[in-house]
Amino acid sequence: MTTQPSTQLETFPNPQTERDYTIRIHTPEFTCLCPKTGQPDFATITIEYIPAKTCIELKALKLYLWSFRERGAFHEAITNEMLNHIVSAIEPSFMRIRAEFNVRGGIYTTVIVEHTAKNWQAPALVMLP
User: Each residue of 78-111: pLDDT tens digit?
Assistant: First the structure.
C-alpha cells in the first residue's frame, strides 16, 4: 500500500456514461506552504465534476493532494494547477474546484476554478417545490 505523496492520478471507467451525474469530493485537510514565509497553509478543497468516460480514483487523489504539503505556492496557482492536472487525467464534461483557505493575516481566501468540455451543455435546472 502506497504511503507516500504522488502526482500520479489514477482513473477508472465511468460506470454510467449514458447519464450526467455529479461527483462531489470534499476534503478539509489540505495543506501546502506559504511561498513567502514557508509557514503552513490549510484549506478545505471541494471538487465537483460530471464525468465523461472516466472518474478519478480517490486513493490516488488523496496522494496527489498530499504532494502539495511541502510545496510553497500561491492559493491561486495551486487551485488552477489542480484543475489542470485532474482535467487532463479524466477529461470531464464539467469540473469545479473550490479551495477555501483558512485565515492568514486576518484574510480568508477562496479560489474557485472551472472547466467545461467544448461540446457539453449543462442540463436544465430542475426546481422542485
Answer: 999 999 999 999 999 999 999 999 998 899 999 9
Give the three-class secondary structure for 83: helix
* Single-letter residue type at 74: F
Active site includes 55? no
Report residue 83 as a C-alpha cell: 484543475
Query: Does 32 qualify as catalytic in the annotation?
Result: no
Q: Which long-range contacts (CB under 8 A, 24 or more apart) does 115-123 make?
A: 115/83, 115/87, 117/52, 117/91, 117/92, 117/93, 120/50, 120/52, 120/93, 120/94, 122/94, 123/20
Instruction: Determine phi and psi for 94, rounding to 5 degrees.
Output: -150, 145
Residues 6+ apart with CB under 8 A from 68: 30, 31, 32, 78
pTM, full prediction: 0.93
In order of their start, the domains of the chain are 16-116 (3.30.1130.10)
pLDDT digits (tens, 9 = 90+) for 41-73: 999 999 999 999 999 999 999 999 999 999 999
